[in-house]
Amino acid sequence: MTYENLLVEREGFIVKITFNRPKTLNALNSSTLRELESCLTRLRREEKDQTRVVILTGAGGKAFVAGADISEMSSFGVDDAREFAELGHRVLDLIAEAPFPVIAAINGFALGGGCEIMLACDLAYASDRAKLGQPEVNLGVIPGFGGTQRLIRRVGLARAREIVYGCDMIDAEKARDIGLILEVFPHDELESKVTGIAQHLASKAPLAISQAKRVTEKGYDESLWAAHELERQAFGLLFGTEDQTAGMKSFLEKTKAEFKGR
Ligand code: CAA
Prior knowledge:
The chain is α/β, with parallel strands linked by helices and 262 residues long. It has two domains: 6-202, 2-enoyl-CoA Hydratase, Chain A, domain 1, CATH 3.90.226.10; 206-253, Lyase 2-enoyl-coa Hydratase, Chain  A, domain 2. Helix content is 48%, strand content 16%. The chain has helices spanning 30-44, 70-73, 78-96, 113-120, 147-155, 157-166, 172-177, 190-202, 206-219, 224-238, 242-253, and strands at residues 6-11, 14-19, 53-58, 63-65, 102-106, 109-111, 123-127, 131-133, 170-171, 183-185. It has a six-stranded mixed beta sheet, sandwiched between helices. Strands 4-6-8-9 form a four-stranded mixed beta sheet. α4 (113-120) packs across α5. The radius of gyration is 19 Å and the shape is globular. Bound molecules: acetoacetyl-coenzyme A (CAA). Residues 24-25, 27, 66-71, 88, 109, 111-113, 116, 135-136, 139, 143-145, 147 line the site of acetoacetyl-coenzyme A (CAA).
């Protein structure tokens, strides 16, 4: 897979996607979003069996993604903006609903659309140089890629409003303390730490992780009854997989299971 604005590298079951427009701090223009849409679609269709974890990060050492591309957006009218928001929502939903975990390695600025991408990921880890935030109100707009809604679910209503209204940049430690990200690592160690986490997840039963993701993602906005039903269905389904047989057999025989994703 080769793209103009993304670098895509595979190592075994792990795929690293790097936003690669360093001159604009990896700002998201429509063509980058379309490339990400096509890349994620390919991973979840043609490369489904080979893909267990995806890592997202940014090129250039300064930014993860500094937001949607302001140069492109500056000439938008109402309809263009609505279309752009629809594209952003579609791509971020592909992350949130992917059958594999997606990890954000926040190696610098994660602002606006960059912070929203991070919010759509399953897990987020940051370098101690990272700065996060939703500065859209400074531009006379609001987050448009699902940020308002994912942010309130992540940090609560009052904190989300503080972040969106005030537009302040949040350093990595504060981001961890308010639950925006999970852990902070020294800048030079971020890549190896996140790769280690990805390898750890890639060794687990992929269909079980996929169902755990689906049930927690879909169940979050359902009633407790409906969410419990999703869990019961998924639990039952997994007993039809080779991985369940292998996992339980290995436990009983005190050996390590090799999961096949079947
Ligand atoms: N869009 C387009 N270009 C951007 C950009 C963005 N979001 N962020 C940075 N750039 C460009 C700058 O214009 C600059 O280009 P030139 O060299 O051609 O001037 C280059 O990247 C480097 O940026 P700076 O010189 O500004 O670097 P800095 O270190 O002084 O500041 C920064 C870094 C604080 C991140 C600053 O660039 C900044 O504030 N960027 C914009 C952040 C922002 O507002 N993001 C939200 C966008 S709106 C959005 O995302 C909407 C949505 O939800 C869909």
